[in-house]
Inverse folding.
């Protein structure tokens, strides 16, 4: 009889810890709801003690999730466990996930603790957690580099204390499939009470073996997999949910295992993650990358036409990618637009639908056919626009290889127009300087990525930017048939987040009578890092002042 595998998703904890993937509370709740649609069995919602923000997110997720178990990570310490329990106790199915390292290396250098002391702490803390929560998972951090017999003793004792899920992580991605399979078998054969617990595997990808190791762990008898969407996670990441599950599905001839996960939600879930974090999915990413179902070479196309199984081992539909013959264009109405968006997995409320339809019409005027990838890019930039503080009114650039680029940018804020002219070594740079001048605040451009959404000549350009100031990092995404406009839209969505953050910090300081330095700084000081070559016109619509 096929074994049912538990899918434990840690995108919101191990994944979110990775640089560039942090999310705010609203984004985490949105993503957790999608994980529930995906039907993962367990959502590790965060590490409650890590920060007040993490705590609030775990608690908010616990309150809204109906079907999946919600877990919070905690070190094997009473204060961590208390905080984890406080955060998950309102969940329909709460779980405390507590861990301590078991390898000699971690015990000696990180915890400065003897094996005996770590064993006692693990046992005491599982007992403590079990007095609070109905379900306790125990992880032996760095399990694969731990002494096997010591590890087996720890596992046996924590099971005695009521841990019903035992996670054996390959914390640093060191093991190999054969070795990991034997390791899981060893634990299963040498822990007398192992039948009272479920074995879980949690593999990191430092050697690119996370998925292979996870599958080897399952074959050896593990029945829970800890994975992340897109394989995001610490360093090189974790095993990717979509790869593990699609391997089980595609090679069901090898793996006699089932799962509750709905694979047709995999594509939408990974798009949502990319949308929220603004980190693009690599085109060659297994299962969910843009090229995963694209067939470029003539030989492959020929084979595909004769029988799609020649080059396709799984169907696009199985991950939720719907093929369509319907092409949208400038004559398409709101109904057709909404219908296609729905087919792509997006449910739009009236105001978002109206906004995106207006963006769609705008683009359809310039571009003959609007593909699904265009629609997804529109959706992603539209839902990510963030606060609408400054809006792009118009811009003009002059550029060429015989001249210095100039940009004249006009932005609107509260109905008032602001214009600046700047010169720079390139047109995007000139635009960015003009925006900086209008907002009167310097920022550093940390990252700028431009890509074509589709391969055609009239493709939409999509720009992702990351900027920073003293208060933090801000990301933006913009889409247009004009790459300069896409750059400006992307910059503005990041700038608006920065301005919002700065202004709300100012409001708080003023409320507390602590006026921050930058509020009292003269304009010149704010502009000190900028080589000002142009002019700022305020309220140009009313013929406002100019210097
Ligand atoms: O990689 C790891 O060991 C972990 C544990 C804390 C579960 O993430
Ligand atoms: Zn991990």
């Amino acid at each position: 009889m096929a074994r049912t595998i538990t899918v434990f998703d840690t995108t919101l904890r191990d994944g979110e810890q990775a640089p560039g993937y942090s999310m705010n509370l609203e984004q985490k709740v949105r993503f957790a709801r999608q994980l529930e649609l995906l039907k993962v069995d367990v959502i590790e919602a965060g590490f409650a003690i890590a920060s007040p923000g993490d705590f609030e997110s775990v608690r908010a997720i616990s309150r809204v999730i109906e079907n999946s178990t919600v877990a919070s990570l905690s070190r094997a310490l009473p204060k961590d466990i208390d905080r984890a329990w406080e955060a998950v106790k309102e969940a329909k199915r709460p779980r405390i996930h507590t861990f301590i390292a078991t390898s000699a290396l971690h015990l000696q250098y990180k915890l400065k603790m003897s094996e005996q002391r770590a064993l006692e702490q693990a046992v005491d803390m599982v007992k403590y957690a079990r007095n609070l929560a109905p379900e306790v998972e125990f992880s032996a951090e760095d399990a694969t580099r731990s002494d096997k017999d010591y590890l087996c003793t720890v596992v046996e004792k924590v099971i005695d204390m009521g841990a019903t899920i035992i996670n054996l992580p390959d914390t640093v991605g060191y093991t190999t499939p054969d070795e990991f399979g034997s390791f899981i078998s060893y634990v299963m054969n040498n822990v007398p009470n192992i039948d009272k617990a479920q074995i879980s595997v949690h593999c990191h990808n430092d050697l690119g073996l996370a998925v292979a190791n996870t599958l080897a762990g399952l074959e050896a008898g593990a029945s829970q997999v800890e994975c992340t969407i897109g394989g995001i996670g610490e360093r090189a990441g974790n095993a990717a949910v979509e790869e593990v599950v699609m391997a089980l599905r595609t090679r069901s001839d090898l793996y006699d295992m089932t799962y509750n996960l709905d694979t047709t939600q995999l594509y939408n879930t990974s798009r949502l993650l990319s949308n929220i974090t603004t980190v693009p999915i690599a085109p060659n990413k297994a299962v969910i990358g843009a090229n995963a179902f694209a067939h470029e070479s003539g030989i492959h196309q020929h084979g595909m036409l004769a029988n799609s199984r020649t080059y396709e081992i799984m169907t696009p539909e199985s991950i939720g990618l719907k093929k369509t013959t319907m092409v949208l264009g400038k004559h398409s109405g709101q109904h057709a637009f909404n219908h296609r968006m729905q087919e792509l997995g997006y449910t739009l409320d009236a105001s978002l639908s109206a906004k995106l339809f207006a963006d769609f019409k705008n683009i359809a005027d310039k571009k003959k056919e609007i593909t699904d990838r265009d629609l997804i890019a529109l959706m992603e930039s539209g839902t990510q626009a963030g606060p609408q503080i400054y809006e792009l009114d118009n811009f003009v650039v002059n550029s060429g290889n015989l001249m210095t680029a100039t940009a004249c940018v006009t932005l609107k804020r509260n109905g008032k127009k602001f214009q600046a002219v700047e010169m720079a070594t390139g047109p995007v740079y000139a635009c960015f300087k003009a925006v900086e001048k209008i907002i009167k605040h310097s920022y550093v451009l940390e990252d700028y990525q431009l890509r074509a959404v589709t391969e055609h000549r009239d493709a939409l350009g999509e720009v992702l930017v990351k900027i920073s100031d003293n208060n933090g990092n801000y990301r933006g995404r913009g889409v247009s048939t004009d790459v300069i406009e896409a750059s400006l839209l992307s910059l503005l969505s990041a700038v608006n987040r920065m301005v919002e953050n700065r202004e709300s910090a100012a409001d708080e300081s003023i409320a507390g009578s602590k006026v921050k330095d930058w509020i009292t700084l003269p304009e010149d000081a704010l502009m000190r890092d900028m080589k000002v070559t142009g002019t700022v016109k305020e309220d140009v619509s009313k013929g406002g002042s100019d210097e």
Observations:
- Residues 483-511 form the longest helix (29 residues).
- Residues 510-535, 541-547 have pLDDT under 50 and may be disordered.
- Residues 293-317 form one domain.
